[in-house]
Design a protein that fits this description.
Mean pLDDT: 87
Radius of gyration: 17 Å
Strand content: 5-15%
Number of helices: 2
Helix content: 55-70%
Number of strands: 2
Number of domains: 1
Low-confidence stretches: none
Largest sheet: 2 strands, antiparallel
Distance between the termini: 21 Å
């Protein structure tokens, strides 16, 4: 399982591609739509968590400390 913010973008676009598949039946579209809603809900929480981490890093940096440990992981390392 991948756990980077860059992977989240890939998952969201993959879901969009599944929803755009013109060969899906009505039932499959409904199933993918439900799945998409769940993915968006989880993605929203991941994004909120990353935003909180960035805010924490900003506060740490404002007080003269190294913010790197507080930053979310991007491509396997803190930016």
């Amino acid at each position: 399982m991948k756990n980077r913010l860059s992977d989240l973008n890939n998952h969201l676009f993959a879901q969009l591609e599944r929803l755009s598949d013109e060969d899906l039946t009505k039932e499959q579209i409904e199933q993918e739509a439900t799945r998409g809603e769940a993915i968006v809900a989880v993605a929203d929480q991941i994004i909120r968590n990353a935003a909180l981490q960035i805010r924490a890093a900003e506060l740490v940096a404002e007080h003269g400390s190294d913010p790197a440990p507080y930053l979310p992981q991007i491509e396997g390392k803190a930016q």
